[in-house]
Write a structure and sequence with these properties.
The protein has helices at residues 26-56, 63-89, 98-131, 136-139, 142-163, 165-169, 187-223, 232-267, 277-300, 302-312. It is mainly alpha-helical. The chain starts with 25 loop residues before the first helix and ends in a 15-residue tail after the last helix. It holds the Pfam family 7tm_1.
Length: 327
């Protein structure tokens, strides 16, 4: 007489209270683990290069680069901690406990929120630089930028604790069985504070920057032959600011391409189940932005390529390397 095979449980001693194990096909599982592991390592390594470059070389201690440094820190945490935990979440069962589960999501929400707020600050920085260049140096000081960065991270931490308050108060309360890592958040509030307000701000600010930048570019082209010697420095500064705006515009466009799809899917009313290929793709797309940012710097910022050369060849260890010319 044949006996029915019992489903394999995450915690067999808990019987019906335990979650059931689900197993991916071996080839699919290996592909996901290898791909995410490589991206995680690449993300952490590239952003660490950005952090070391901006922190070490005095020429790079500008207001705009301080915002890029803050963005690189959040991206580095994503590559170092968030992505590896996402790999572990692909396992059939969660064995690290309910508190670790909630803390992981707190860190994930904090870094994603910090990246979003940093993008808003970068948009504000470019808006002032292009639309009010004469007062940029007095309005956007390093002290004010540092204060904004600190407030950005404080807001991101508070944002995470606000949305995960119930889960932090009672870890595991959202789980349907033991061996699960699930949280419960206020989707409507997250949509407004985490998507609509910051994304709208970024788009509005950069649309204004784009209009003014095009106007300035046309003005410079039409008057370049008549520019006097004493005004040549002003024109050079304008061109530099326009180039920086274009470069950071690419960063913001890539950010929007990675950040918007998950929220757009939610707005469409499509029900996403955890563990499905759709959910995995949207999470991968959101986190991949942390890897793309330093790649954009590598292609568009000569100072980043020079800084990496200094770091890789260990010239950074030489005396007075902080004063090296990388711009």
């Amino acid at each position: 007489m044949e006996t029915l095979e019992e489903p394999e449980l995450c915690f067999p001693h808990l019987l019906n209270a335990s979650c059931r194990k689900y197993a991916r096909p071996h080839t699919e599982a290996m592909l996901i683990y290898v791909l995410l592991s490589c991206i995680s390592l690449l993300t952490a390594s590239l952003n660490l290069l950005v952090i070391v470059s901006i922190s070490h070389f005095r020429q790079l201690h500008t207001s705009t680069n301080l915002l890029l440094l803050s963005l690189a820190v959040s991206d580095f945490i994503v590559g170092l901690i968030v992505m590896p935990f996402q790999i572990y979440l692909k396992e059939p069962c969660w064995h690290l406990g309910d508190l670790v589960c909630v803390l992981f999501y707190v860190l994930s929400f904090t870094t994603v929120c910090a990246s979003t707020v940093n993008m808003v600050l970068i948009s504000v920085d470019r808006f002032v630089a292009i639309c009010d260049p004469l007062r940029y140096s007095t309005k956007v000081t390093q002290w004010r930028v540092k204060l904004c960065v600190v407030l950005c991270w404080i807001y991101s931490v508070l944002y995470s604790f606000l949305f995960l308050y119930n889960d932090l108060k009672k870890p595991g309360s959202s789980n349907s069985c033991y061996g699960e890592c699930v949280i419960n958040i206020n989707g409507a509030l997250d949509l407004i504070l985490g998507f609509i307000i910051p994304i709208s701000s970024i788009i509005i600010l950069y649309m204004r920057v784009f209009v003014v930048a095009v106007s300035q570019a046309r003005s410079m082209r039409s008057h370049v032959a008549a520019v006097k010697v004493q005004r040549s420095l002003t024109v050079t500064v304008q061109r530099s600011e326009l180039k920086a705006a274009r470069t950071l515009g690419v960063v913001i466009v890539v950010f929007l391409m990675c950040y918007c799809p998950p929220y757009c899917v939610c707005l469409s009313g499509y029900d996403i189940t955890l563990g499905t290929s759709t959910n995995d793709f949207l999470v991968f797309l959101l986190l991949s932005n942390s890897c793309l940012n330093p790649l954009i710097y590598a292609f568009l910022y000569p100072w980043f390529r020079k800084s990496v050369k200094f770091i890789v060849t260990l010239q950074i260890l030489q005396p007075k390397s902080k004063e090296a010319v990388v711009l």
